[in-house]
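Exercise 7. Given the encoded structure of a 133-residue chain, write a plausible sequence.
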């Protein structure tokens, strides 16, 4: 991995909407079923809203019924870093962008094949780069 992308809170606030800042920089969560990509079926690559790093492919997206975009795996294992998150009184595995440390969401062991994982991601942390038609 190349050098980590770092910015001050002021720089991030100038680049992001208030919701995007809250989710990605303050480890917030958008309301279920409120995100732009929860039901999206558009082909493409989902990139980090903060730094543009490729994170997830629409080919690995599935309808988990949870209200958040869900993926079986990232486009590249090196694109995501994880950390234990005990913020709600139990331990979950937080997912973050490896390039800029943006909070993305969490991973759970209840997804479909081939990985059995559900990467539960906030739409506010993503931007879809649509496939060229």
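Solution.
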């Amino acid at each position: 991995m190349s050098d980590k992308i770092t910015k001050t809170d002021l720089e991030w606030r100038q680049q992001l909407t208030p919701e995007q800042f809250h989710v990605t920089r303050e480890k917030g969560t958008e309301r279920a079923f409120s995100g732009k990509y929860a039901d999206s079926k558009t082909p493409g690559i989902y990139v980090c809203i903060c730094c543009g790093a490729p994170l997830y492919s629409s080919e690995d997206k599935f309808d988990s019924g949870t209200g958040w975009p869900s993926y079986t795996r990232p486009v590249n294992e090196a694109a995501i870093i994880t950390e234990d998150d005990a913020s709600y009184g139990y331990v979950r595995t937080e997912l973050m962008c490896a390039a800029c440390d943006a909070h993305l969401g969490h991973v759970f062991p209840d997804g479909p094949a081939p990985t059995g994982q559900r990467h539960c991601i906030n739409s506010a942390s993503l931007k879809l780069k649509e496939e060229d038609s």
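Remark. The two ends are 31 Å apart (CA to CA). Students should compare their own answers with the one above.
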